[in-house]
Structure formats: structure tokens, C-alpha cells
From TrEMBL:
Keywords: DNA-binding, Transcription, Transcription regulation. It holds the Pfam family LacI. This is LacI family transcriptional regulator. InterPro entries: HTH_LacI (IPR000843), Lambda_DNA-bd_dom_sf (IPR010982), Peripla_BP/Lac1_sug-bd_dom (IPR001761), Peripla_BP_I (IPR028082). Residues 27-81 form the HTH lacI-type domain. The keyword Transcription applies. The keyword Nucleotide-binding does not apply.
Length: 349
């Protein structure tokens, strides 16, 4: 008689895994079942992370599946459950923030670790409508949830996804009346605090390089900056020729022109490390001392400015944490459909 354990097992696992696998054989659920000594249905439920299966058993099944290279048949899985077990991250290639994509991906991947979900990157390029990749994913049922970045005040992607009741999370907020899931950084607080730092350090005229006007966080940064300069009656300059998305050479040329003027700015706020490096290059080329003649506060998202001398004031935005939060909230939205208020996080300084 075959003895079964409490999770549907069929005795001890075989001693030799090679008995069941040829070099050219594709591992199946039955392969995992034979190697673990469990029933096929138990293996299937364990890989689906069913809470009825003991955690120790789930971990053992997952470990064996990984060791032999077993992957579920996604097509069959989708037909059976209606789920793809895929999260799609829609990314715009840009150099505004160093390590943005890598940090976001690392965070999301960490959030999905140990689940049945996998991350797929879907690129979006600025010369095509932002909603195109989102429509493509939904139309072809390529993912169970979508994450995206660079949110706009009246974002068409958010409108579309809310209308279709499709799970999503975005990095950044909109100004829409309908609440939606998001993870955002306090860019208002960043700009305000940066300006106050420069004012306290003796700067007399402040200059801020903003993101493109179409993004919500550009408005947040502008409002935080303007609050600080108005509180003190400070002179200020907001260059309209360049944004955080501009090429670094273009930013350097514009700042160089500003520094050539008699009433030049002496305090700069940069929302990204690339723009900060361009400002530093312009000041150096003008023979200005970066501690005495010109001061700078930059948003730091990588370890780059830890190695810059002279040391520069920075305010840190944790993009990996943002990615992890986005992943966890999106999984929660898919599984539980909680109130939207539970799917909104603002990272504070």
C-alpha cells in the first residue's frame, strides 16, 4: 500500500533525479511530482501558492521546480484560469534620472519574488501615444496588471484603465477627480526643502530646472519652489529653454549663458543627477567656485554623487523602494480589490 502524507504525498522522493530527466526532456508537473513524492494536484496547488498547502511544502516544490527548469505552460494556464501571471512595466527610455529603469525593475522584481508572477518590460517611445502599449497589453491579454511611469495631470492611460477596470499602478499622480492607485515621491517637498537649504546657505537668486510641463511632478516641483521664494521675496529664474529631459550639453549651454549675466543665479535646484552635472560643468568652465560662488541641491537617485567632489547637497529619492511598493500594491489590487485609499503611497523626504 502506498502511504500518502498530509499534503497528498506518495512517500519519499526518489533518490536519483536523473532517473526521470533526459537531457532533452522538458520538465512537467508530473516530473516535479515524482521528484518530490507528491501528487500532481498537490504540486500544481503548491506552485500556485495555495494557502491550503503547507509553506514548507510550497517552498520545497518551488525549489525543485527551479532546479530542474520547470516552467508552467502559460497558454494552458491562461485558458484554465484566465490569468497570465505576468505584470507588465511600461517604461520610457530617458536620461533624466540615472539608474531610473534599473532601480524600478529591481524593486518590482523584489516585490514579485516568491510569487507566481513574472515581470515583463514593455517599452514606450515618446513619438507614439502613451496609451498605445497599454491598449496592446489589454487587447492581447498579455498581463494581469500594468505598472507605468511619468504620469500626466490628465493621463489618458489612467482614464482608459479605470474605464476598463483593469488593475494598474503608476509612479506619479494625476489631477483626475477619480482616485486611482499610485506611488509617488513628494516632489513639492523636495523643491521646497531644496530652496530653503539654498536660502539658509546665503544664496540670493535661485534657479530651478523643471521636468517637462506635461508631467504632474513638474507642477509639484514648481509649486514647492515658488512657495519658498515667495516666503523670502527671493529673486528667481526658471529657464524655459531646457527641462530635465533636455540633453546635458543643452542644459550646460543654457546655464553657462545664465552665469555670464551680472545678476546671475547663485543657487541651483536640479531634479536629476544629469542636470546637476551639467550645472557643475557650466560653473567650472566659468571659473566659479562650487561652494563659494555657486551652490547646488540635487535630487539623488544613485550612488554617483557620493563620489563627486566638492561634495554637493542632495536629497535622496529611493526608486527601488518605489518599485517594490508598486509591485506589492498591484498584487494587492489584483488579488483583493481593496479601497483605492489603500493603494496610494506618497514617499516623503
Amino acid at each position: 500500500m502506498t502511504n500518502r502524507n498530509e499534503n497528498g504525498g506518495r512517500g519519499s522522493p526518489p533518490a536519483e533525479r536523473g532517473t526521470y530527466l533526459r537531457d532533452d526532456a522538458k520538465p512537467t508537473l508530473r516530473t516535479v511530482a515524482e521528484l518530490t513524492g507528491l501528487a500532481v494536484t498537490t504540486v500544481s496547488r503548491a506552485l500556485a501558492d495555495a494557502p491550503q498547502i503547507a509553506l514548507e511544502t510550497r517552498l520545497r516544490v518551488r525549489r525543485v521546480a527551479e532546479e530542474i527548469g520547470y516552467f508552467p505552460d502559460r497558454a494552458a494556464q491562461r485558458l484554465r484560469t484566465g490569468r497570465t501571471n505576468v505584470i507588465s512595466l511600461v517604461l520610457d527610455p530617458h536620461e533624466e534620472i540615472l539608474g531610473y529603469a534599473t532601480s524600478m525593475i529591481n524593486g518590482l522584481t523584489e516585490a514579485l519574488r516568491g510569487t507566481t508572477y513574472h515581470l515583463v518590460i514593455t517599452p514606450h517611445f515618446s513619438d507614439t501615444p502613451a496609451q498605445d502599449p497599454v491598449r496592446h497589453i489589454m487587447r492581447n491579454r498579455m498581463a494581469d496588471g500594468i505598472a507605468f511611469t511619468r504620469t500626466e495631470p490628465s493621463d489618458e492611460r489612467v482614464k482608459l484603465l479605470l474605464e476598463r477596470d483593469f488593475p494598474f499602478i503608476c509612479h506619479g499622480r494625476t489631477e483626475l477627480a477619480t482616485p486611482h492607485p499610485f506611488v509617488d515621491f513628494d516632489n513639492y517637498g523636495f523643491a521646497y526643502k531644496a530652496a530653503r537649504k539654498l536660502i539658509a546657505g546665503g544664496s540670493k537668486k535661485l534657479c530651478i530646472i523643471l521636468p517637462p510641463e506635461r508631467f504632474t511632478f513638474a507642477h509639484h516641483m514648481r509649486h514647492g519652489f515658488m512657495k519658498a521664494v515667495r516666503e523670502e521675496g527671493m529673486a528667481f529664474d526658471i529657464p524655459h529653454e531646457v527641462t530635465l529631459d533636455s540633453k546635458s550639453d543643452d542644459i550646460r549651454r543654457v546655464i553657462d549663458q545664465r552665469l555670464s549675466q551680472p545678476d546671475r543665479p547663485d543657487g541651483f535646484i536640479c531634479g536629476g543627477e544629469v542636470s546637476a552635472l551639467a550645472v557643475m560643468a557650466a560653473a567650472h568652465d566659468r571659473g566659479l567656485d562650487l561652494c563659494r560662488d555657486v551652490r547646488l541641491v540635487a535630487k539623488q537617485t544613485s550612488g554617483l554623487f557620493d563620489q563627486i567632489r566638492p561634495r554637493t547637497e542632495t536629497i535622496y529619492e529611493d526608486l527601488a523602494e518605489a518599485g517594490a511598493l508598486m509591485g506589492r500594491l498591484l498584487l494587492k489590487r489584483i488579488a483583493e480589490r481593496p479601497p483605492v485609499s489603500e493603494l496610494q503611497v506618497l514617499q516623503t523626504i
